């Protein structure tokens, strides 16, 4: 049994017109037992930068704490927020530091860069970055998410439509994965506001 | 890929889908045959018409699939000779299950989806695992692209939930044209992200008028 499948997770991020959305499931399990139904996997780094961490939950939390620490130091030194591209390189470097004893996490990074240009990327547990223009997925439900996003995504969606699309893709995918689910948590970020919604799906 | 000297199977990849409607059934499969990271051919059919209202699509190890299809076609011919009629889809479903379980301890590496019309003319789809466990459903996908396709079918086919009481048929209320369009769409999406799915899509539609076959090009990379 894979260490990546110990807790169960599903994370997805999508790009829209001058906005992005990042969504995750809410289940925390210990193999087949569900231990929490309100577990947070998508975290804020600053107002226009979010990271979702799938995989082993303890590593997701530790990595998040380390990243927030590094970003706060950056803010003190540079007196500004980190750009998403820079942050992605930071995450990649932190993961590669542990090349022969890695964090068992697959991050999904989403943010608004210069001129509020949406930026998304994902990486494997060793820090190999993969930029995408449309959507990125990770977690135990990743194959289902690939299929659902590929079918439902179209470029240049407005915020409302993007929210609907990412929610449907997430819920349809986690319903076919026994290790993820128990609802969804979606963050929709535009240059002016951030909307957080909790989705009710099949509670199993 | 196995280094053991006794590994007798290989996975030739590919995806099969079937969708049942009120008076039709759509069975579709891609035509790519692969081994490892290579393509053996872009033009290999995974679909076998076993009876006039019964079509089988299988993905997995093509050696076992060819043997399985030959076995079932022979049994259907025997049935025709003995009963003076062709086998119905539910009958073939049971036969396939028994044939697969017969080799429970040296299985056919075949992931099957059987589609057709039942004795009342309604669409039916039966989905199997490699050793013959089967279930009648409204739709199914099997093969390397199945995990990419199933969530989209769940979301788009508007079939009644299997949890509702009284139990009702899981056939989709969509029309034949809508179902075929959806199947083409899901294969296009699966082709993008699954390396073993692509080249061409073979779609077989069974309704009371008979059987129609259609070929659609898919991405070849």
Automatic annotation (TrEMBL), chain A:
Species assigned in the record: Zizania palustris (Northern wild rice)
One Pfam family named in its UniProt record: Proteasome
Major subcellular site: cytoplasm
GO cellular component terms attached to this protein's record: cytoplasm; nucleus; proteasome core complex, beta-subunit complex
Record's protein name: Proteasome subunit beta
Keyword Cell cycle included in the entry's annotation: no
Purpose of the protein: Component of the proteasome, a multicatalytic proteinase complex which is characterized by its ability to cleave peptides with Arg, Phe, Tyr, Leu, and Glu adjacent to the leaving group at neutral or slightly basic pH. The proteasome has an ATP-dependent proteolytic activity.
Protein localization: Cytoplasm; Nucleus
Presence of the UniProt keyword Acetylation in the record: no
The family this protein is said to belong to: Belongs to the peptidase T1B family.
First and last residue of the signal peptide: none
């Amino acid at each position: 049994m894979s260490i990546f499948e110990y807790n169960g997770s599903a994370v997805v991020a999508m790009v829209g017109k001058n906005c992005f959305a990042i969504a995750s499931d809410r289940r925390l399990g210990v193999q087949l037992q569900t231990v929490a139904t309100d577990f947070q996997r998508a975290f804020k780094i600053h107002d226009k930068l979010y990271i979702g961490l799938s995989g082993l939950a303890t590593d997701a939390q530790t990595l998040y704490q380390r990243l927030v620490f590094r970003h706060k130091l950056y803010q003190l030194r540079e007196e500004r927020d980190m750009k998403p591209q820079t942050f992605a390189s930071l995450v990649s470097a932190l993961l590669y530091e542990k090349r022969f004893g890695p964090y068992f996490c697959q991050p999904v990074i989403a943010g608004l860069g210069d001129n509020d240009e949406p930026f998304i990327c994902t990486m494997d547990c060793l820090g190999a970055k993969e930029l995408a223009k449309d959507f990125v997925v990770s977690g135990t439900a990743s194959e289902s998410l690939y299929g659902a996003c590929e079918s439902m995504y179209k470029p240049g969606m407005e915020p409302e439509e993007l929210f609907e699309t990412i929610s449907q893709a997430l819920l349809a995918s986690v319903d076919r994965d026994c290790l993820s689910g128990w609802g969804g948590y979606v963050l929709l970020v535009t240059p002016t506001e951030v909307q957080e919604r909790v989705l009710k799906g099949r509670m199993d | 890929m196995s280094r053991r000297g006794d590994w007798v199977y290989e996975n030739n990849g590919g995806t099969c889908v079937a969708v049942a409607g009120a008076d039709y059934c759509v069975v579709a499969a891609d035509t790519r045959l692969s081994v490892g990271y290579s393509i053996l051919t872009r033009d290999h059919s995974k679909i076998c018409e076993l009876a006039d209202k019964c079509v089988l699509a299988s993905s997995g190890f093509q050696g076992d699939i060819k043997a399985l299809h030959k076995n079932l076609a022979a049994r259907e011919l025997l049935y025709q000779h003995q009963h003076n009629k062709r086998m119905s889809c539910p009958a073939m479903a049971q036969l396939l299950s028994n044939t697969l379980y017969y080799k429970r301890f040296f299985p056919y590496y075949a992931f099957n989806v059987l589609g057709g019309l039942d004795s009342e003319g309604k669409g039916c789809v039966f989905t199997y695992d490699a050793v013959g466990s089967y279930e009648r459903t409204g739709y199914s996908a099997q093969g390397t692209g199945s995990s990419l396709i199933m969530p989209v079918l769940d979301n788009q086919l508007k079939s009644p939930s299997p949890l509702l009481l009284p139990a009702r048929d899981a056939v989709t209320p969509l029309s034949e044209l809508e179902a075929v369009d959806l199947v083409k769409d899901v294969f296009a999406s699966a082709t993008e992200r699954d390396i073993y799915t692509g080249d061409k899509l073979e779609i077989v539609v069974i309704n009371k008028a008979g059987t129609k076959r259609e070929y659609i090009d898919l991405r070849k990379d």
